[in-house]
Amino acid sequence: MIIRLNTASTVPIYVQLRNQIVTGIGKGELKVGEKLPTVRQLALDAGVNTMTVNKTYQILRAEGFIEIDRRNGATVRPMKDTTLQYREKLKEELELIGAEACLKGMDKKEFLTICEEIFAHMEPAIEPS
Length: 129
What we know:
Mean pLDDT: 93
Strand order of the largest sheet: 1-2
Pfam families: GntR
Low-confidence stretches: none
CATH superfamily of the largest domain: Winged helix-like DNA-binding domain superfamily/Winged helix DNA-binding domain
CATH architecture of the largest domain: Orthogonal Bundle
Number of strands: 2
Protein name: DNA-binding transcriptional regulator YhcF (GntR family)
Keywords: DNA-binding, Transcription, Transcription regulation
InterPro entries: Tscrpt_reg_HTH_GntR (IPR000524), WH-like_DNA-bd_sf (IPR036388), WH_DNA-bd_sf (IPR036390)
GO molecular function: DNA binding; DNA-binding transcription factor activity
Number of domains: 2
Strand content: 5-15%
Helix content: 40-55%
Radius of gyration: 16 Å
Structural class: mainly alpha
Order of helices and strands: HHHEEHH
C-alpha cells in the first residue's frame, strides 16, 4: 500500500494516515494479520514525525482496526462493531457527506450509485468481536 499525503490539505497528517490505512484494510490491500511498518519506518517512508505515526496507530488501535504488541508491533485486526454508538457515528458522517453532495447539486440516485460503487470495492475481512 502506498501512502500519499497532502501537506497543503487542511486535514491533519495523522488523520490522512489513519484514513488511508482504514481504506487499505477495507479494500483488502492490508490483510488481517498483516504487520504494519514500525512507527519509525512509516515515519521515514511518509516523511513525517514519528509522533504523528504513533498518534495514528493509537487512534487505529482505539477504533479497533489494529492491535499493538510491544514484541510484534502493529498488526491489522479489524473487529466487527455493530454497536449503536458506531451506527450513530456512521450516520452523522454520512449525513454530512449527503448534505454536501445535495448542496453541490448531486441527486439522490447519483449519490447512491457512487456509494454502491465504492462499497463494491471493499473486501470485508474482519474478525468476530
